[in-house]
């Protein structure tokens, strides 16, 4: 018995569309990843612009995107140390907060003295608590003691509590909802139909 079936142009179009679904999903994921990297960079600029002397350049320069396609699936990775981006050791502690234990070096002591002088000027230098009060700097003595304490500490390691900023996790949570919207079956079919002639 021979069955002869003829595929109509509309049926052929549907078959091609179905074959395009994995690559359409990959294109959607790649587009989402690129937009997410831009969002993270903008959010990092916003978060760190509120803090004086905070530097986000190293973080924002090293947020990367990697898209890998396998048979039937696509993996998108966004973060520091991904793709061509360098791994930033302090990215996670900046995002989630926590305790860090830096070694006190001569360079750190010089930095602390420089911050002390920059913040409070040379007129307070070497005056001690009573001299600073006479100069009207008593309100800033507590702040001054932070830099001065770092410069004069005998410890070889410090315990520093870093507050969470959410520079990475907050935009990722927001963008996850967008990803779920992009990966609805209707959205994938619409993207797959774009690849069909």
Describe this structure in words.
The chain is mostly helical and 197 residues long. It has 2 domains: 7-101 and 164-197, no CATH class; 105-158, no CATH class. The chain is built from 9 helices and 4 strands, in the order αααββαβαααβαα. The strands form 2 sheets. It has a two-stranded antiparallel sheet with strand order 1-2. Strands 3-4 form a two-stranded antiparallel ribbon. β1 and β2 (73-80) form a beta hairpin. α2 (21-49) packs across α9. The longest helix has 29 residues, at 21-49. The model has no long low-confidence stretch (mean pLDDT 80).
What separation lies between the terminal Cα atoms?
A: 35 Å
Give, in spatial order, the strands making up the sheet with the most strands.
1-2
Q: Work out the helicity level.
A: 55-70%
**Number of continuous helical runs:** 9
How would you classify the helix and strand content by structural class? mainly alpha
**Fraction in beta strands:** 5-15%
Major sheet attributes:
2 strands, antiparallel
Count of all domains:
2
Instruction: State the low-pLDDT regions, or none.
Output: none
Rounded mean pLDDT score: 80
**What order do the helices and strands follow?**
HHHEEHEHHHEHH
The total strand number stands at: 4
Shape: rod-shaped
What is the CA-atom radius of gyration, in angstroms? 28 Å
